[in-house]
Amino acid sequence: MNTAYLISENIISSLGFTAEENVHAILENKIGIAEAKDFSKKIPSALFSKINTPLLNDRFASLLETLKPDSRADSFTRLEKLFILSIHDAVSRIGLNCRSNRVLLILSTTKGNIDLLENQYIAKFNHKRLF
């Protein structure tokens, strides 16, 4: 039996929600860094690369309605929404059945579920989801 490798990728960043959107933005010389203000009195402003939260929530709600209409979008953390959107995009382009025990998914990220360290999320989400 021969081994088959199917490779697909996706990037979610401040430049876009797909690898194609990111490349297109880069080719158009767009910058994904913007000034954010009012953090604290010690740091009045800073430069950040931030993913568009309303767009993230809209795209996730739309996908969730299609895949699992009985689920609520607010039962997922921000990181989980990013993962689900990104994985769905990458996998849907190659027609892979992720439920097979012969499939290995490699996920690389620079983002952790750090939101769950904040008090406002501790009561809402199980602390184990931090990991």
Summary keywords:
mainly alpha; two-stranded antiparallel sheet; 2 strands
- Total number of β-strand segments? 2
Mean pLDDT: 84
Q: Helix/strand/pairing class, anyone?
A: mainly alpha
Low-confidence stretches: none
Can you give a write-up of this model?
The structure is a single chain. The chain has 131 residues and is mainly α. It has helices spanning 19-27, 53-67, 78-92, 119-122; strands at residues 33-37, 45-49. Helix content is 33%, strand content 8%. Strands 1-2 form a two-stranded antiparallel sheet. Helix 2 (53-67) packs across helix 3 (78-92).
Protein topology:
Layout: H1 19-27, E1 33-37, E2 45-49, H2 53-67, H3 78-92, H4 119-122
Antiparallel strand pairs: 1-2
Helix pairs in contact: 2-3
Kindly summarize this structure in a few lines.
By secondary structure, this protein is mainly alpha-helical. The chain has helices spanning 19-27, 53-67, 78-92, 119-122; strands at residues 33-37, 45-49.
